[in-house]
Amino acid sequence: MEKIIRVEGMTCNHCKMAVEGALKKLSGVINAVVSLENKNVTVTFDEEKVTFEQMKEAIEDQGYDVVD
């Protein structure tokens, strides 16, 4: 499954790497690609192994805000 998550606060390549890295560490996340321009991250994941709440928490733990 693929989901686009809006994220506020990402401004640079470090932000991109932090969010992608945090998401890719989650079991069930197959890929995560940040678009700084669009202020979002596209996550490909197995919905039976990871929840939106877990992905949201991983992003917020990096210091960014998820916009529902």
From TrEMBL:
Transmembrane segments: none annotated. This is Copper chaperone CopZ. Residues 1-67 form the HMA domain. One of its GO terms (cellular component) is cytoplasm. It comes from Tepidibacillus fermentans. Its main location: cytoplasm. One of its GO terms (molecular function) is copper ion binding. It is found in: Cytoplasm.
